[in-house]
Design a protein that fits this description.
CATH class of the largest domain: Alpha Beta
Strand content: 5-15%
Number of helices: 18
Radius of gyration: 24 Å
Number of strands: 14
Number of domains: 2
Bound molecules: uridine-5'-diphosphate-xylopyranose
Strand order of the largest sheet: 3-2-1-4-5-6-7-8
Largest sheet: 8 strands, mixed
Shape: elongated
Structural class: alpha/beta
Helix content: 40-55%
Distance between the termini: 64 Å
CATH architecture of the largest domain: 3-Layer(aba) Sandwich
């Protein structure tokens, strides 16, 4: 099929490459000429494992091209995926003006009938709004082409985006149009035949709700285990073992029960907020999700309190954050707990150092000279009064305990991701504190 993907950010670019891999002819379109130029020259504008190789393959096979020109992008397109950003608005809820603009542009420039598919994370009823925008835009046209709207949420995780898209747990799409449904069946035919994953076909609002509810549920799982971690600390239990014990129950599952600094990234914080906002708009106060958000923010204070307990006050103390990205495998800093923590530490007068294996350029853009940047974890800790594990990078987990102790001015480690071997650190005299776990025996 001839597919156009509008917006080549994380979701759009990975989706475009995977569609091309399944044999479709794909055009990636974006207003950002720098991004398109990078892609046309064979570069990749962000870090995502496996993506450069996949792009190489499909671009050299001639199945994926890039342009900034919407008319060219729509020429002959049968299916158009909307993958533009929906950044949070200051008052809560996502900014949908980019999604609306795509709807308007497609209505204006499409010369043949198309299926318009929302893939960006959008609140329920965006599909209905898009249909309305298209109708208004086409009102003055002599012979408007038919544009059918569908919703096809993605569930890809950054850092595993290629695998998640090539081999998803399920495919969800919703539409009221038979033509759109047939087109989406054709888009995913190869992968469904190969992998045999379940396909959930619904109407548009139901597909939109599946995305909201899935992300909100995963965020709830994380906040739930973080709340349990608080109780664990107070009764001397170990949250990781509690999660192991819970996780063997197949109704619960072990995934997303890792206690720590809480969730960040471009999706969970924004999506939970958007779901709260949407629910309120339609007359339901989703207070459960408000609590999920509150617990998530509170986790940064939990770590700060541990530092204060060790260091008394943080003014003029040097604290090293081991990891900046919101999780390993990405250079994405959006809503990264490490950045929130860095800002809180700076406010208390601390000197902040940050180590990260891939995200330092982005940290510089976010925080400028307010923090010191290091590409070596031990050097980042040299002379610091405490180190905090903020992202569970393999490079952080592989730190040699003795080298860490020798580097630090005070042997204090707060493990905000429960990633290190606390017993090994305590055995050589490091004051080790994790989230929701008793102090290791050797330092008790
Ligand atoms: C998420 C969803 O997983 C994906 O399905 C959706 O399409 C987009 O949002 P992503 O944001 O890439 O993907 O990251 P994910 O791996 O889900 O992690 C999100 C955050 O939760 C990270 O900050 C991670 O550190 C944190 N997390 C995750 C925990 O704190 N504990 C856990 O047990 C799991």
């Amino acid at each position: 099929m001839k597919i156009t993907v509008v917006g080549v950010g994380h979701v759009g670019l990975v989706s475009a490459a995977c569609f091309a891999r399944w044999g479709h002819e794909v055009v990636g379109m974006d207003d950002d000429s720098r991004k398109i130029e990078t892609l046309q020259k064979g570069g990749v504008p962000f870090f995502e494992p496996g993506l450069p190789e996949l792009l190489d393959e499909v671009v050299s096979a001639g199945r994926l091209t890039f342009t900034t020109d919407i008319e060219r992008a729509l020429d002959g397109a049968e299916v158009v995926f909307v993958c533009v950003g929906t950044p949070p608005l200051p008052g809560g809820g996502p900014n949908l003006s980019y999604v609306e603009a795509v709807g308007r542009n497609v209505a204006k420039h499409a010369r043949t009938s198309v299926v318009l598919v929302e893939k960006s994370t959008v609140p329920a009823n965006t599909g209905a709004r898009l249909t309305q925008v298209i109708a208004r835009e086409q009102a003055g046209l002599d012979s408007p082409v038919s544009i059918d709207v569908a919703s096809n949420p993605e569930f890809l995780r950054e850092g595993a985006a290629v695998q998640d898209t090539l081999h998803p747990d399920r495919i969800v799409y919703g539409t009221g149009s038979e033509r759109a449904r047939d087109a989406l069946r054709e888009v995913y035919r190869t992968v469904v035949e190969e992998d045999g994953m379940p396909v959930v076909e619904t109407d548009v609002p139901t597909a939109e709700l599946i995305k909201h509810a899935s992300n909100a549920f995963l965020a709830t799982k994380i906040s739930f285990i973080n709340a349990v971690a608080q109780v664990c600390e107070r009764v001397g239990a170990d949250v990781d073992q509690v999660a192991d014990g819970m996780g063997f129950d197949q109704r619960i599952g072990r995934q997303f029960l890792y206690a720590g600094l809480g969730y960040g990234g471009s999706c969970f914080p924004k999506d939970v907020d958007a779901f709260i906002h949407l629910s309120r708009q339609v007359g339901y106060e989703f207070t459960l999700l408000e609590e999920v958000e509150r617990i998530n923010c509170e986790q940064r204070n939990v770590v700060l309190d541990k530092l204060r307990n060790e260091l008394w006050h943080l003014n003029e103390k040097t604290v090293t954050l081991l990891g900046a990205a919101f999780k390993p495998g990405t250079d994405d800093l959006r809503e990264a707990p490490a950045l929130h923590l860095a800002r809180m530490l700076l406010e208390e007068g601390a000197t902040v150092r940050i180590y990260d294996p891939v995200a330092l350029a982005n940290v510089k853009e976010e925080l400028g000279d307010a923090v010191e940047l290091f590409d070596d974890p031990i050097e980042a800790c040299r002379g610091a009064h405490a180190a905090v594990v903020t992202t569970e990078w393999d490079e952080v987990k592989a730190i040699d305990p003795q080298a860490l102790k020798d580097a630090l001015a005070y042997p204090i480690v707060v493990d905000g991701r429960n990633a290190l071997d606390g017993e090994a650190l305590a055995a050589i005299g490091i004051h080790y504190q994790a989230i929701g776990k008793p102090a290791p025996r050797a330092s008790a």
